[in-house]
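Could you please consider the sequence and fold appended to this message?
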Amino acid sequence: FIATTASAEGMPITAYISRTTSLPTPMALGAAWDETLAETAGYVMGRELSALGVNLFLGPDLDVMLTPRPGDPSDLGARVFGSHPFWVGKLGQAYIQGMHQGSERRMLVAPRHLPGLGSADRPLSEEIPTVQKSMAELEQDELVPFFAAMEGEPSAASVADGVLVTHNRYRGFEGNIRISTQPISLDTQALKLLMNLEQVVSWREAGGVLVSENLGLRSIREFYNPEGTSFNARRVVQEALIAGNDLLIMDKFSADGEWPTHFANIRDTLEFLTTLYESDTTFQSIVDAAVYRVVQMKLRAFSEFSLPAVSVVPDAAEEVLAEEQSISAQTAMNALTLIFPLSEDLLLPPPQEDESIVIFTQEHDVQPLAGGPTLPLLQRDTVSNAIQRFYGPQGTGVIEPGAVQSFTFSQLRRALETGPQPVVVEPSEETPEEESEPIEGEDGEEAPAEEETPTVTPTSVPVPIANIVFDALERADWIIFAPMGLYPDDPNATALKDFLGEQAGLLDAQLVVLSFGPPYELDSTEISKLDLYYALYSPGDAFVEVGVRALFRDLVAAGASPVNIPALNYDISQQTKPDPAQMIGLNLVDVAGEVLTPLKESNIRKGDVVNLQTGVILDRNGHPVPDGTPVQFLLSYPQEGVEQVVQARTQGGIGATSVTLDRVGQLDITVQSEPALSSVRLQLNIREDSVDVFSSTPTPAPTPSVEVAEVEEETATPTLQPELPKDQRLPEPIRLPRPQRWRLLGWALMGTVAVMVLGIIWGRERKMPAEVAMHFGLLGAIGSLATYVIWIAVGRFQIPAWYYGIARQEFVASGITLGMGALVLLIAMRADFLRRELQEAPSRR
């Protein structure tokens, strides 16, 4: 395997590989709520990494961010898709499918971190977290995305080849709150319980691989030896294999962190495992099963184990890299989220020609490799350059040259710490301190020019950066902040919060935040001091450009936060519930889910089973509600005063059920999915021989004034069922004339009986035996009934005008059966006559 993790420092791994495509963060994909974009991002990632020779992708992260922890080392940040288990699973599935397709199945995908880090209160690199959750609680939220990734056999495009098992410990995992597991990746009983879940069993049996989290983490070493003085490498690896892991990651596998010790531990561990394998049959079977699954997984990516089969072609990689640059731009436009104000109608006018702009950018440098170079995720001039490019002299010309100044969070922090500094100009010894006139010589004449003391100017004295910052703030009409996130290791990350706490009320300027990190890091008071707050979730040129264009009102925010924002009471579990303001559609459909045409509706009869289907039910963010959302179909028989409720759950945002029309009368059907209670109403008028169907959309009833209500109360005659206002009455359905089925069949049977009697009489007149005469009669009857069936079928389905044209003329059926039956009888008579002639011919000869 040539493997890579999904991200580093919260950014997709390709952010640190030169000439690869700049991809959006998972949270940006989550804010777009679009599976197609997630699949495209995975496609580009899989295509480029496989071209570089990578064949195992440890990701994407399927953690569910249940509790944002801004500024805490355990905060998951923008590397997760969101806070809703269903949507994390959907986007994860799409991302996995894209990676498989982009790499042409040469990329194996193992999402992280089973069972999930959403409830972990500290990072694994420091200490193993203990989570207070039972298995049942995990199944409701954190395990849901992994179930989605395991839905099917690993050979399917949207199914994970493996999963990476984290080191979390769990208290109450099996229901007993007093008992804690070992790190779950090393706990045989807990991991087996996880693998025996119904949603996991088939995936595991089909070859799903378990990959252990890095066994060389400091937290694992200290779990076995809190003093950190030693490291029993043999024990750790043995327990990881026995627990059920198939593939082990051993990075920095030593107590002292030195590479020579690391390699010595690796060699010693392999020798120990070899000896144990040869002597212990139980351990041998465990290793054999793991090897089988690992080899099976490799064969899914490569048909054979040979160097040509697994090698990459450098020239081909050159053609693949960075050929898909549009994915970030598409994601940025769809993910752009207006956090504050809460409505587009409350937005301020954009910056004008005579206004000045000051920008503060959080330059966050990352070091993806220990000892390697540092890389900036967002540079000081990135936002100002975008403003000048779109709206400066080279763009629309709205912003004048020199109207934009840029600073960093570091400069802002220093300015806030020191405040404005006095600038002291030290006078020279020859120049009096307060002398402003030219210096004169001893004879009263002006001193020669070459002997003059030069005048001290502001440019000759360094001006403190704090003074420049405060001067820019006092002159600014717009102050824009471009934060990346509250990184614990970044001392400048709190500069925005410090500014809002100290200076926000002292300046007459519009305060704007274009956030390129998580959207939940400001509290309620801090947000209330802003005039505009956009979330973009990811750095990069495309996201900066979208943020700038939104500031100038050239783009409308189309995204919605995929995570909870406690400061605004934005709860993703509430946002993904049905929007109460919507009108839910309701239709009769066939078994394939297609809406019935009027012609098909006219075929419905009492006793039939009809299929009901809602329209797409939308949540408060305007997206389809998650699968499994409860839906209630309300059945009302107003003449009988009977009501029934049929429960269902959504699939793809749509609810469906079936109802048997088992009684005559009016049936009203509506649907609701709390808190959405309004829907189209279907009314079925059920008769013994027909069912009329029509739908209506309810309109709000007019609210009468107090005076009108009093008059009505005095004059109205009370009734059990008051008549509805005219505008609320249901329209009379269009009724097509239909032939009565019982009359059609009755006339047809009369014709059939007449033909049968005619055949019997004819036979008896020909001196035939009674049974032969009966045969002729039945032959005529069969011809009559066959003709009736064909006639009805052709008229009903092929030429419906004929069918409806015989309404109130059902006696035509008798003529059809009588005429065609008589024709069949005549043919039979003629055939019998010819048969008799042939039999009598020899005797006459």
